[in-house]
Amino acid sequence: METIVLDHPLASALLTQMRDRATDNPGFRSALRQLTQMLVYEALRDAPLETFDVDTPVATTTGYRLASPPLLVPVLRAGLGMVEKASSLIPQSRVGFVGIARDEKTHQPTPYMESLPDDLAGYPVYVLDPMLATGGSMVHTIELLVQRGADDVTAICVVAAPEGVETLGAAGLPVRLIAAAVDEGLNENAYIVPGLGDAGDRQFGPR
Ligand code: URA
């Protein structure tokens, strides 16, 4: 699986703000939005463009737009904090939703909602989830997309655990991964170490 880890001083500083337990909910959401912008830039680096004529006040010249804007799929609830920035960068994008809760005892993903277009053949899809921990939620989400014909999926995450990267790579799905960091590993509660805690709680407060 192609795996791209963002290598940029600003990304390191924003990630540090998110890791810091002293960062409050608004500060965490703000850093997540800014980091999402950088991750989406990276995801779009080689995106195909189409050309059209654009009139400047002076002359007609060649304009560019994305040939195929992606479907954005935030995984609820933690992915919610990434979707507004991603869709403002790519205003033509559509948005689908997948809801997956984590069983705190078994650490297994428990799907509770999906709202996705029926036909995704030939359509790039960006799955937005800040944390790639065991990889279970991401694999489940991408399987839903592949059932609808998707064959070009990008998982956009802030922090990944090596275990999640391994699971996602071994699943044989048409996916590449873009993350801001690959951390040390998972603890006994399947939290990423050092990680940043529960990305949903850090954005929205504890349930
Ligand atoms: N989900 C989170 O929000 N944090 C982790 O560390 C692992 C899964």
TrEMBL record:
<feature type="binding site">
    <location>
        <begin position="129"/>
        <end position="137"/>
    </location>
    <ligand>
        <name>5-phospho-alpha-D-ribose 1-diphosphate</name>
    </ligand>
</feature>
<dbReference type="GO" id="GO:0004845">
    <property type="term" value="F:uracil phosphoribosyltransferase activity"/>
</dbReference>
<comment type="similarity">
    <text>Belongs to the UPRTase family.</text>
</comment>
<protein>
    <recommendedName>
        <fullName>Uracil phosphoribosyltransferase</fullName>
        <ecNumber>2.4.2.9</ecNumber>
    </recommendedName>
</protein>
<dbReference type="Pfam" id="PF14681">
    <property type="entry name" value="UPRTase"/>
</dbReference>
<keyword id="KW-0460">Magnesium</keyword>
<keyword id="KW-0547">Nucleotide-binding</keyword>
<dbReference type="InterPro" id="IPR034332">
    <property type="entry name" value="Upp_B"/>
</dbReference>
<feature type="binding site">
    <location>
        <begin position="197"/>
        <end position="199"/>
    </location>
    <ligand>
        <name>uracil</name>
    </ligand>
</feature>
<dbReference type="InterPro" id="IPR050054">
    <property type="entry name" value="UPRTase/APRTase"/>
</dbReference>
<dbReference type="InterPro" id="IPR029057">
    <property type="entry name" value="PRTase-like"/>
</dbReference>
<feature type="binding site">
    <location>
        <position position="77"/>
    </location>
    <ligand>
        <name>5-phospho-alpha-D-ribose 1-diphosphate</name>
    </ligand>
</feature>
<keyword id="KW-0808">Transferase</keyword>
<feature type="binding site">
    <location>
        <position position="102"/>
    </location>
    <ligand>
        <name>5-phospho-alpha-D-ribose 1-diphosphate</name>
    </ligand>
</feature>
<feature type="binding site">
    <location>
        <position position="192"/>
    </location>
    <ligand>
        <name>uracil</name>
    </ligand>
</feature>
<dbReference type="InterPro" id="IPR005765">
    <property type="entry name" value="UPRT"/>
</dbReference>
<keyword id="KW-0342">GTP-binding</keyword>
<keyword id="KW-0328">Glycosyltransferase</keyword>
<feature type="binding site">
    <location>
        <position position="198"/>
    </location>
    <ligand>
        <name>5-phospho-alpha-D-ribose 1-diphosphate</name>
    </ligand>
</feature>
<comment type="function">
    <text>Catalyzes the conversion of uracil and 5-phospho-alpha-D-ribose 1-diphosphate (PRPP) to UMP and diphosphate.</text>
</comment>
<dbReference type="InterPro" id="IPR000836">
    <property type="entry name" value="PRTase_dom"/>
</dbReference>
<feature type="domain" description="Phosphoribosyltransferase">
    <location>
        <begin position="5"/>
        <end position="205"/>
    </location>
</feature>
<keyword id="KW-0021">Allosteric enzyme</keyword>
<comment type="pathway">
    <text>Pyrimidine metabolism; UMP biosynthesis via salvage pathway; UMP from uracil: step 1/1.</text>
</comment>
